[in-house]
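Illustration 12: Succinyl-CoA--3-ketoacid-CoA transferase.
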Amino acid sequence: MDKVVQSAVEAVADIPDGATLAVGGFGLCGIPSVLIHALLDSGVTDLEVISNNCGVDDWGLGLLLQAGRIRRIVASYVGENKEFARQYLAGELEVELTPQGTLAERLRAGGSGIAAFYTRTGVGTLVAAGGLPWRYSADGSVLVSSPPKPVETFTVRGESHEFVREEAITADYALVRAARGDRHGNLVFHASARNFNPLCAAAGAVTIAEVEELVPVGSLDPDAIHLPGIVVDRVVALSPAEAADKRIERRTVS
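Figure caption equivalent — predicted structure in token form:
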């Protein structure tokens, strides 16, 4: 039951080239930055990443991107990372842009064993019809585009609407960050760090969590646990310095 490993390096040591990773966080909030650094140092490459975004140019997943370690990313947002946009437009990176709510539900479905679901989001657009550029060639032409998705009509509350079918997402590994956790892998997330972290954790076949504070087993109120330990395979306890090393994505002052 004790899932604590001694270091982030040990925790990610078996992640191979070509692995698919679901990575928690939103912007720079709640990202597993220590595990990402360990992954960078490991030299692993050819990764497919599922995450809300790809960090910024010098922090988070942006570090793996700068090093050329990411082959493909499924994300909702590009805006804060210039290298992300450059690689995508240059044909160096395959990008599946997905509506944010749909991405969250695809991860939740994957973690719940649900193969697919229907949503109104994207009906009447290229999300449903296909043709979204996933990868460009060096000359700027579209090399790979999204396929069309099944669309069906359902009646909800007496009204008929079209719905597009979206497939669930699962990953070989999930990397997440929690504010507190115990040795059994029970996790508590702080505020908005709770958005994508639990979803990514459940979608991973092997889930690795870095925790800012490791607490004794039994000290967490069961009603306060956001993610049960059955979902988590490895726990890395951060040092106080690692836990405090957080970046602000965009500082606004008045």
